[in-house]
Amino acid sequence: MRQRAAVAVGGAFVLVSALSACSANTGGEPQVDTGRQATGVIATDPRDSAGPAPEVAGARRGGTFTILRETPISHLDPQRTYSFAGLMTVPLIARTLTTWKDDGEGNLRLVGDLAETPGRDVDDDCKVWEFRVRDGVRFEDGRPVTAREIGYGIARSFDPDLAGGPTYLQEWLVDTPQYDTAWDFQANRTSLPPGLTTPDDRTLRFEFARPRCDLPFAVSLPTTAPLPSDRDTGVDLGNAPFSSGPYKVTRYRAGVEIVMERNEHWDATTDPVRHQYPDRFVWSFGPTPDAAANRVIADNGADQSALSWDYVPASLIARVAGDAGLRARTILSPTPSANHLVINNARVTDLRVRQALNHAIDREGLVKVLGGRHVAVPMTTLMPPATIGHRTYDAYPAGPDGDPDKARELLGGQRPELVLGAADSSLEQQVATQLKGNLERAGFTITIRNIPDDAKLDEIKKSGNPWDLYLGSWAADWPSGASILPVLYDGRTIRAQGNSNHAYFNDPAINAEFDRILTLPPTEQSRQWAELDERIMEEHAPVVPLYVDVAYLVHGAKAGGIFVSSVFGSPALVDAHVKP
Amino acid sequence: MLRFLVKRTLSAVLTLFAVSVLTFLMFFALPRDPVSGMCPRNCNPERLERVRQELGLSDPLVVQYGGYMRGVVAGRELGAAQGGHCDAPCLGWSYVNNEAVTDTLVRVLPVTLSIVVPAAVLWLLLGMGLGLVSALRRGTWVDRVAIGFSLTGASLQLYFVGAVLLLIFVYTLGWLPVPGYTSLLDDPVRWAGGLVLAWLSLALLCSANYARLFRAQLLETLGEDFVRTARAKGLPRSAVYGRHALRAAISPVITVAGLDVGAALGGTVITETTFGIHGLGRTAVDAVRAGDLPTIMATVLAAAVFVVLANMLVDLLYAAVDPRVRLG
Amino acid sequence: MSLSPAAGPVPAAIGSGGTAGPPRDRRGAGHSPGRLAWLRLRADRTALASGAALVLFLLVALAAPLIELTYGIGPRDQFQDRLDGFGLPLGRAGGVSGEHFFGLEPRLGRDIFIRLVYGLRTSLFVALAAAVLTSVIGVVLGTLAGYLGGWLDAVVTWITDLTLALPFLVVALVLPPMLTLRFYGQRDTVPAAFGVGVLIVIFAVFGWTGTARLIRGQVIALREREFVAAARASGAGPWHMLFRELLPNLRAPILVSFSLTVPQFVTGEAALSFIGVGLTEETPSFGRMIYQSLEYLQTDPAFVLFPGVVIFALVLAVNLFGDALRDALDPKSAG
User: Where do the segments described as Disordered lie (chain C) (predicted)?
Assistant: First the structure.
């Protein structure tokens, strides 16, 4: 009898497998538009920045738009937010000096948001900038937003107790990375940081010691969200932010749920990009990406107007992509998030070894490990294609699946022993295994050493870290070479820890190029960044470019208006609506 | 009785003390900096140093431990970045979750209780039912099927069963809502609907031990003198089983159940992970991975309290049910 | 060990309450108790079938390198050209063919059959070694506590309570990286055996409580029996008492608790992988395979099926055999 019970259970297994495994898999290549490039301009014409935003076709008011996500957004304090989920959510409850008009296809236009235009370079040297604050923008209690509240928002970002957000403005204003010691917010709550002034209620003026030509981009980050000083609740603001956007937080249950409802003091005519279609947005935290995708695919009840925030898990892609009925409910788009096999240049000093690494990698095989072209698209450049002005090239052509022979030739008989540091997450372990196979085929000896997943980023940010190779990714804060190349490859920024220059690459000639290009007007910079990108790869090969992330999203049948942000590669919510 | 209680309580307090000290030590032996990960993308060394000061991480371990324990008993003052004053029982502030750890516990404890308590009732009923049936029908096919069923259940893996049940009943057939936690007080129907799969899978897997144990105990007590005497006196079968055999056979079941439930309350990580419900177990694992000491301490201590309490309770119940046991 | 309630302190129950039967060697008509049990076991068809299955599993695990040689494919060989654009195996049932008996893994395209063979080797080794260690620790502590009693008993009981209250998961998460760093620095190659060894130690440190409780109860019961008292009265030393009088009578409970802990550790290894701890990617193991396969339930069910069925069969076989063994050793509970 015991045996019979076992047989019955075995039968159940077979039944499950029979659910979908009967037909043979003959392959069939999924298609992704990968050659797409971003075009970006700063809209100098005030009409571009004027509200209201054009209506979204087919959108109507009403309904509850739900967003499912595994990990909670830790808080919604605009000055402290830096996660993609936070950066995409904060626009609903806070306005910023500038913002992106984005069609989700890579056509970007930077427009004024709280400001009437994306700023004025007063002396044409990028050192003094003025923003004229728009009339008619109000907080959720009806008070008008003036330059004073915007200034206060920037000032409180200096508070060390409120760390976590972007630090561009702070560092630029006091011209040092140790901005919070250079200006003590807690001792100067009633004044503004040096370099920031409000000549009148509608003017905000920045004065920098050095040219900061990217300022219009930098003030699109939520550091510039306004806040009246009497509404500053310190660390608690994250649980109950004070809204200047189309929605306000009405329910906040840490780690579980955030509910936002309409802010009746928001005026559509003052806003160039946002809408106010759904009655409420509900963030629901907890379901794994797998569970969230399955729920949304099942399309029952409230999930019909839900979006699964996390990308479709690689294991489910074949099912989602293979279902013609789901096509209208999926979004596929490359993102600006670039992934490299980072070479620790402080350890691997031989250029030929770094070049051999570039020849050895089988990018097609790697994409299969990641889950196919709905997850990743191969890349051979330092900057992702979504960067403004990007140009495609391949400095070490190795074909789609690598050229081990060429790599061996470059190594000239030596057999370098390299240590690959890999996070202990399941996926990165498999990627590391794949890369080890590629490299050993080409004559390297690779040791994989595991790093606890949560600690990996901190560890590789330490100069003098013990590994030769590790996987690194970079998503820029705005799609300009200025927020990629100097950040990642300026050797003068290397310090003991907290480095973005994970490759520990330092070359005086390249550093000088950074300085030169950074003082050019943003529109002239883009072509030069692309040229420098190719030059760095050809002369130094500091990393092995691997792939860019692809966003593949699925949502319920009644969820509309979702597109993938061309800036951050995450779902944008400004056009979101619930279909009838 | 009083002496037993005092002795037991002292031993329990000593256990909890040892657990807290060991956890504290273990955390500081971690090969990672406890303050890293507290300002995710833009930490500079100065800011990290300040966090370290604020958390008192440069103080000697004994001082840190003392501060923590004082907070638990009497509350303590924390820095402004940690929400200021923290009332007793103060379990500290989590930079990772950006909330007081007491609030985290208040949030996740009901979740774990909601998973474990109904599941335990189910697995006890199922296990004892199967055990009773197979003991009464000893040697027949009923016995074999019941024991075969429970052995099969014990050989299955929760994450496996859970994934299959989810695929069939939730995603394919849509008969059950997606697992999740709703407060029992808010909406009892949704509460049950969101947890029923977890209860069922736990019951299926856990009942096996109870079935076999209960069956063995029943068979043993049925063979004992006092049962035989009762039957010889002409008492009806049902009375013999009900009043004598069942009562004697139930005490070891209580022992196991108490310890099992105590352990389960400390965290049903696998269940929580499989069904995507964040309770005590998942919170503990996430905290360890993020190096979040205050949350680690709180979850470990909460789990230890459950285990220790269960241990004490089992001893007491044992005495109540089985008159042969004398507490000394 | 609070990994799952099922993996809790179950063995504590078997024979708890100090109801050990009369000493076995005073029963039976001319047969030694071991021989009696063996006869009963041989007559039990379930025991025979599950025993045969276990022997087969053991042989496969032992002969893994030999199987690799015959099969011609190693556990790390990749066949990515037989995967489609999504990284899923081409062909029927997850790429099952004459060359790849159980098909290929998605993503890396490794052969499932040979990885299962090596996974079986790892898992069985971990489980058996950990079970032996727990038995030794449990028997030693349980016997000492039960036989000597007094303050020693109090201390052992307290350590047992403490171990139950200690956070198994936290230790399992924290200890391996710490020890790796301690012994291999940051750049040396870490042999797979090291991870396996650490896992065994963790299991042993947390797994002995059940056995200890069980043995302690049995020893306390035995201590008061005539034959022990008689031996003691005739001036037998403590070693004679422990090894000649007590241990032979503990064989049954030791075997029983051993048979209960083995499946616990097989599933424990898998469960640890499921929450992202345990062995590394380079060591083929059941746990990792099942953990990685589960997400493919909808897109590549064959990948879920093969490892799932094998681990189920292994655990079921151990459980069935353990159950039969229990019946054979203690005929009172036999069906």
Answer: 1-31
**CA distance linking residue A345 with residue B70, whole number of Å:** 49
Residue B143 to residue C335, Cβ atoms within 8 A:
yes
Give the pLDDT of residue B45. Answer: 65
Return d(Cα A543, Cα A505) in angstroms, integer. 9
Same domain, B196 and B312: yes
Pairing of strands A469-475, A417-423: parallel
Amino acid identity of residue C255, one-letter, is L
DSSP category for residue A115 = B
Estimate the crossing angle of helix C33-43 against helix C301-329, to 10 degrees.
140
Contacts of B296 in chain A (CB under 8 A): none
In total, how many domains does chain B have? 2
A498:B98 CB<8 A: no
At B115, which helix (H) or strand (E)? helix B101-136
* Contact partners, residue A57, CB within 8 Å, separation at least 6: none
Q: In sequence order, what are the residues at sequence separation of 6 or more whose Cβ sits closer than 8 angstroms to the Cβ of residue C138? A: C208, C209, C210, C211, C212, C214, C215, C257
Query: Which residue of chain A comes nearest to B282, CA vs CA?
Result: A286
Q: What is the pLDDT of residue C15?
A: 37
**C150-165 and B2-28 are packed helices; what angle lies between their axes, rounded to 10 degrees?**
50
Of C277, C276, C285, the residue nearest C311 (C-alpha): C285
- What range does the domain containing A140 cover? 8-279+560-578
Given a contact cutoff of 8 angstroms between Cβ atoms, the answer to whether A502 and A515 are in contact is: no
* Cβ proximity of B84 and B95 under 8 Å: no
**Closest CA of chain A from C178, distance in Å:** 11
pLDDT band, very low/low/confident/very high, at A179 (cuts 50, 70, 90):
confident
Q: Provide the β-strand partners of residue A251.
A: A259
Cα–Cα distance, B259 to B311 (Å, whole number): 6
Q: Is residue C238 predicted with pLDDT exceeding 50?
A: yes
pLDDT band at B37 (very low <50, low <70, confident <90, very high): low
pTM recorded for the entire structure: 0.86
CATH number at residue A28: 3.40.190.10
Distance, first Cα to last Cα, chain C? 31
Q: Do A464 and A526 lie in a common domain?
A: yes
| Structural domains counted in chain A | 2
Q: Which two tokens stand for residue A527?
A: 């072509």
The domain boundary, picked from B68, B102, B136, lies at B102
DSSP E strands in C148-267: the ranges are none
E strand residue ranges, chain B: 76-77, 85-86, 93-94, 99-100
Three-class SS state of C104:
strand
Residue A466 inside a domain? The answer is yes
Determine how many CB atoms are found less than 10 A away from the CB of residue A386. Answer: 25
Q: Which domain holds residue B45?
A: 2-102
- Domain identity same for A261 and A370: no
* Strand, helix or coil for residue C130: helix
The count of C-alpha atoms lying within 13 angstroms of the C-alpha of A16, restricted to the half-sphere facing its C-beta, is 29
With CB atoms and an 8 Å threshold, state whether C107 touches A437.
no
Domains of chain C: 33-329 (1.10.3720.10)
- Whether residues A252 and A344 share a domain: the answer is no
Does residue B178 sit in the same domain as residue B309? yes
What are the distances in angstroms from CA C312 to CA B153, C240, C287, C296? 10, 43, 12, 18
Please tell me which of the candidates C84, C281, C304 has its beta carbon nearest to residue A430.
C281
On whether both A454 and A570 belong to a single domain, the answer is no
What is the model's pLDDT at position B312?
85
Do residues A266 and A369 share a domain? no
Residue-level pLDDT at A417: 95
Contact A434 C84 (CB under 8 A): no
Which domain-ending residue is among B102, B130, B149?
Answer: B102
* CA C306/CA C301 separation, integer angstroms: 9
CA gap A57, A38 in Å, rounded: 24
Task: Name the helix (H) or strand (E) containing A360.
Answer: helix A351-360
